[in-house]
Amino acid sequence: MNKILLRAEPEAIEIEISKTAVIVVDMQNAFISQGGYFDLLGHDLSGARNIIEPCKVILNLAREKGIKVIYLQMGCSPDLSDAGHPNSPHRLKSRALNLIREHPEVKEKIYIYDTWGAEIIKELEPQPGDILVKKQKYDGFIGTNLDIILRTNNIKYLFFIGIATNICVESTLRHAFFLDYFSILVSDAVSHIGPKIIHESSISNVKTTFGWVTTTENLLIALKDVPLNLSM
After folding, report:
1. Contact 180, 213 (CB under 8 A)
2. Could you list the active site residues?
3. Residue in 72, 54, 38, 50 with CA at minimum distance from that of residue 193
4. What does pTM read for this prediction?
């Protein structure tokens, strides 16, 4: 059984399991954990913490069914050599990089590679067989080999989970659409930064233009009869 019919909005979509991957966006200490970057900025972490369990359920199921799991990890090198030119829009707009400049003592709490802030949270640590893609931009395709990895594995359908719905998730999902991937946002396994209306706006953008929106429950129902991956 390679094909499933997934209940989604704006309509159901047929998916080939062997050509499917889950994209886990930036589930890192900087954005999820107390003492991390978002916590330092005063953001409410409850929404981010609430998606850990749905993400865990989806990832465990994906691995059982032989669906590829790909993690995106936001960050930059300790010397900031890959963070962009000092006068680039990204450097000028990045609150994280500005915070590092003003308060270098919090550097390890943000998303510098090889520090606690950049690490994937322990609850969702990558497992053998998963793929980790490091990125410096909100869009997971810019400056990375994500597209090559997907095409090498003959991937056509992408489930998006993680944080933040309105920034890195939507940026990467839109690019995936432009590259002719079928993008599916799992609405209860993504979390936003800012007012809730931003989250709702991103979901509306996906439903109307860039892909499909489903839920963890719909995904579980669609995958329940798919045989286990016996090659694990």
Report:
1. no
2. 26, 135, 168
3. 38
4. 0.94
Backbone torsions φ then ψ of 110, nearest 5 degrees? -95, -125
User: What is the secondary structure of 69-125 as a DSSP string?
Assistant: EEEEEE-B-TT-TTS--TTSHHHHH-HHHHHHHH-GGGGGGTTBTTSGGGSBPGGG-
CA 8 to chain centre: 19
What's the confidence (pLDDT) of residue 47?
93
**C-alpha dihedral sign at 10, 139, 31, 220:** positive
**Distance from C-alpha of 165 to C-alpha of 75, rounded to nearest angstrom:** 18
d(CA 163, CA 46): 12
131-146 pLDDT, tens digit per residue, is 999 999 999 999 999 9
| Residue matched to tokens 């798919």 | 226
Cβ burial, residue 190 (10 Å; 0-12/13-18/19+): buried
CB 203 within 8 A of CB 197: no
CA distance 212 to 232: 29
What are the backbone angles phi and psi of residue 79, rounded to the nearest 5°?
Answer: -90, 5
Q: Are 166 and 172 in contact (CB under 8 A)?
A: no
Rounded Cα distance, 229 and 162, in Å: 24
